[in-house]
């Protein structure tokens, strides 16, 4: 398996890496291996590690066709795997709250119940199903043990990391040759089996992450470029203690639908074949305008008051049934009102912030000035996510507020409605910033009782992407 780089060269993708690194990682792998042996009475053949991620800028724009700027973090999902000839999947988790699971790989099904969080194994099945659909032969079975330290429902991509790890394990077990870009795209489409209509950011950074660099990731086609962050930049992740499972509610898919509908109505008003416009980026391409000009177009063509479903049908001259089939997902057809102006405005402005963020990193020679500019872009992003996209949470807003004067900028990261913020600090201020949050947000907070504060607020740096390896003998 090889990665195709932008210059056409190929890098070895699945080397057998010796287990190295911190004692913590060694202890986790030993625990995972022991759990596997106790459960299956056999030794694992290989291990998979897929990191979580934090998105520095570019929220809710990937599924609209726009680029993002995430980095892989040190927290990850790890699998111990042994391929077996019997076409059966057996799953176990080191977390005792997650029940064991097994099924025939040739007849697996992914059950999605409205308003109910999917069981943990469903995310693994998504990645496996994606690989099964492209395999040229019947699949082998697998014995798998899972462990993970990516905080759940925190906006750090724990679910996508599990989907991606499952896809990588299944591909390797079946000797399926794929590039990093191919398996990232497959993992992104596979997660939609769970009902989440996301973009491809989480899976792309999971496979393309580079130690020491953030990644500028573009879509259609999937491309990535290293972005060196300014000297002295330190990013801190802080958990809001509020969580949301994207697959449990319609909040996330509603935003996807609103962006889709906004693009279609604006396309119709500009006399375009609106049925062929599937994203706000498609619309920009069709009208050949800059992002700044697209902001003006939103203000010109979309009113600020929410659009009723009936009004949208009238604008597009279609029946409700046709709209449901073409533009909505199964858990958004019941929604009666949509805020199209606000969502489109956020997307175009946020896409422009990604461009500006990358330009500062590439062109600004004075680190202190660069850090100030990046902090301002992050602050603008949070305000937009809070007011235009309405996906923040009071806990997220409080964390952002508490960081004022101590962080250069902070914003929610991930889907929102809970999860984490990411803050930009410096080597000189990071300790004071973290201690301030511990004192003013976490200590005395009932939701933090019994939890390790260092796992709730911590500094992070860009880490490597997915790996396959064996234990050092």
UniProtKB/TrEMBL annotation:
Cross-referenced PROSITE patterns: GALACTOKINASE, GHMP_KINASES_ATP
UniProt keyword annotations, A-Z: ATP-binding, Kinase, Nucleotide-binding, Transferase
Signal peptide residues on this chain, from the entry's feature table: none
Domain Galactokinase N-terminal as annotated: residue spans: 35-83
A cellular-component GO term for this protein: cytosol
Record GO terms (molecular function): ATP binding; galactokinase activity
Source domain of life: Eukaryota
Annotated GHMP kinase N-terminal domain residues: 134-209
InterPro entries given in the database record: Galactokinase, Galactokinase_CS, GalKase_N, GHMP_kinase_C_dom, GHMP_kinase_C_sf, GHMP_kinase_N_dom, GHMP_knse_ATP-bd_CS, Mevalonate/galactokinase
GHMP kinase C-terminal domain boundaries: 372-442
GO BP annotations, alphabetical order: galactose metabolic process
Family: Belongs to the GHMP kinase family. GalK subfamily.
PANTHER family, alphabetized: GALACTOKINASE-RELATED, MEVALONATE KINASE/GALACTOKINASE
Name of the protein described by the UniProt record: N-acetylgalactosamine kinase
Species assigned in the record: Cryptotermes secundus
